[in-house]
Amino acid sequence: MTEHFSERFDRTYQDNDLLDKYEAVAVLVANSHHPISPEYLSKLRQRGRVIGVNFKDAAHPERVTREFYYQYAQLRDMVISTEPGPPRSSESSNAQRQREWRQRQKGKGQSREKRLKKAG
User: Fold this and answer.
1) Where is 9: in which H helix or E strand?
2) Cα–Cα distance between 11 and 98 in angstroms, integer?
3) Collapsing DSSP states into helix, strand and coil, what is residue 24?
4) Is residue 27 within 8 Å of 14, Cβ to Cβ?
C-alpha cells in the first residue's frame, strides 16, 4: 500500500480525510503512474466508483456548494487504467431488437426508392 503525503495536513492521509479534487487526482496519479484530468473524477462519481460529498455554503445556508470532496479511503488503492474496458461479450436483447428494426427500416427505404423510380 502506498503512503500518500498531504501538504495541507502536513502528514500522511488517513482513511477519514476528505480531499478536494486536486488532492484526489494527485492520489490517483501516484497510484496509476500516468496523468489524470481533475474532470475525470466527475465521471467516476457518475459511474458510482467514488462518492463525492458536498457541503452547505456558510455564507448562504440554503445553497449547497458545487465543490465535491472525496474520502481518502475510497481512493487509496484505486488504479485508473489507460486501456479501455473489455468489450461486451454479448448484446442485450434490446440492442438486438434495435439492430433488427434498423435493418428493416433500411430495407423499407430501398424498396420505396425503387417504387418511386417505377412510378416516375
Assistant:
1) none
2) 55
3) helix
4) no
